[in-house]
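User: Hey, my collaborator sent me this sequence without any context and asked if I could get a structure. I don't really work with proteins. Can you help?
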Amino acid sequence: MIYSWLKIFTRHVKKSPLYPIINTLGLVLGVTTFVLILLFVSKELSYEKWNPNLDRIYRPIRLFDNGEVWESAPRIMVKTALEQLPELEDALLMNYDSGILFNKDGKKVISSAKRTTANFFKFFPYPIKYGDTTNLFKDDSQLVLSEEFSKELFGDVNPVGETIASLYRNEPYNFTIAAVYSTDGFPSDEKHSVLRLMDLKADNNDHWGNFNYDAYFMLHKGVDVSAFNKKFDEFYDQNTYESWGITYEQYLEQKEEAMYIENLADRHLFGKALMGKGANTLYILAVFALLILVISAINFINLSISGATKRAKEVAIRKTLGTSKLKVIAQFIFEVALQCALALLVSLALIEIVLPPFNTLMGTDLELLSAYNKWWWGFGIITILILISGLFPGIYLSQFNPVKVLKGNFSRSKSGQKLKRGMIVFQFCISGIFLISAFVIKSQLHYMNNRDLGFTKEQMLIINIRNAGETHNKLATFKQELKKIDGVAAVATGTRPPGTYASFGSNSNVDYQELSFQADMHFIDADFIPTMGIKLNKGKNFTKDWMDVDTSQVFLDNDGDTIYANEIIVNQKLVSNFQFKNPIGKQVEYWGYKGTIIGVVDNYIAKGFDQGAYPALYMPYLKGETGDWGKPTHLMVRLNGTAITETVASIEDFWTQSIEPRFPFKYEFLDQNFAKTFAKQKRLETLVTILSFLMIFISLLGLFAIASHSVQQRYKEVAIRKTLGASEKTLILSLIKEFILIAVIALSIALPISYLLADRWLEDFAYRINVPLAPFAITMVLMLTLTLAVILIQALKALKIDLVAHLKYE
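Assistant: No problem. I've predicted the 3D structure and written it out in structure-token form, which is a compact way to encode the shape of the chain:
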């Protein structure tokens, strides 16, 4: 029986190869796209899932009433929690260390280190490739390296026991390599090139307001997390109010936040700090992947039915001879399975070819065979679609009366036509939604690339200051020397330039009377605001880079602590929060200082388009009795646009010879760095554009085959009408109007759905466009044009038929 089915299938492929080829090609494209996106989604969902203690590992975070989230914790809080909360089995503390300059046989490599308590591998049990876990973190001269970083420094050898010369905080230091751990195949946000034992004796460790540490709790088994969250918040309140020296009632009146523990599994996509947006791109891609597979399957079903209807008489004869419905269905499933098997084999080969460029596009490192891939998802979905694709034409044909089929042409029955029309409408509707989505995303990205950001990003060079401890003493000198270099227009320094840099740095409460708001704290020099092109709305700029604290103006706060006077600049957002009508001269308190506002700058987009303006406070680098505080971390050099390569080379020569000779020179252009803030949206736009045209191509493949089949069925009609004198124009209109109507119906459904989806997607941006109308018009014209072109090809072919050949039996 199987052999007989195989011969029948082979005979039909040779007789009519168009349908099998188009069928297989559409399925190949659909399965390939589906599997690629499934690989990406699988990896994103697999973060931390490999951790055996995942259900017991939580991290403490701070939730503010205004929606802000702090993902850090005070060390004293973690230490006290271990002592007072019996629900905790253990706690892990980490924070970032200064950058370390490694020098291996003349090769200089800079890497930041993550300081950690000795129980890191209890919380994150990565496999140790070289070394022994029992001898790790004996002291802070030992380093544990990731396998990737170990290869960069030492090559593919075991470096355990090796000593490497380094420069740490501008002092020579010899580190010993204690172990190397593997991270490949273990998706996690806690992957670090260098791990080092934390210095628990560091200053300011015992202040409840020092939120400078990353922390994780390991709960005992069976702990009620909801009940613990309430207890944890109360624990924090009780200890915090005592540390601030106020009554519990006073503390509760001022309280504007709550402590909360969040499971490690939620961090990557569903963390509170992501504001519910972390998985949005993933949802979009998952839906698109499923839809494109469904479209491929519908295409497959449509073409299978179109091809199978030619075999209606074959089925009718077999049923007349006693073949059961079940065998008819089984035969069609067998034929579909053969085509699907071929499509799957071709798809696997195609996936291996396109996986490297797909990894580059998505910024990831996917592998076809990996532990985190959800193969059962893909296999299950594809299997179900194969069964449906085979069952549909089989059941459909097996239902008809053999006598009626043998008397006439079943393939022109109304039920058969309605089914195909409905599927084509669905295909074109989804294709239209895809295309409009791509255009809307592109429009938003164009807006993001061209909107006035409130600062100058073009031709702005950003240089990381590696040795802030010494370089800040040369501030005035090196700024003047850099300005003498040809091609340099202006020079400034700061701690938080716009772009990805703006997410790093200190925040503080800024208080005015009974009001208090969190603000980004910026240390800047007098040239920062004009060099960056930031608009000064009111008041004046700083006149010098370093501010001497005015010790003649000393204030005492409510606790009797000394507060020093200072001058500051704030942004418009902070002014709006405090509702200052005339902010110049107003005094606010922060960090033990009473700052007098001397200027107000305009809000600028510092952290990306998905985050609105955030309160900001700017101050010069501090120097005085309290010591130097806040040193420049970034150098901004605005170029004049001529001979940029030569100018950068001159800056490098000066920097490496006179300012930081022991560190490699690294720079970045601000516009390129700022583009990273919406890199995810750029990747989405590229992928959705590719998917849109792929979807349209698959739909047009199906339309081409179905139109060809439909027009061929009307050859006799065309021949008769042409013989009776019908014009070519009339014949063409009669052949194409049905498909144009299908396209119009599909677009009428797609347009309102697309508008709602686009508006919902744009809501995630603080700075956004209104839903544009152009993408809707372009999509309508493009899809109608393509549909018309495909149908016209078949219609014109019908006009050239041999009239005698089609009418000789009439």
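In plain terms: The chain has 25 helices and 25 strands. You can pass these tokens on to your collaborator as they are.
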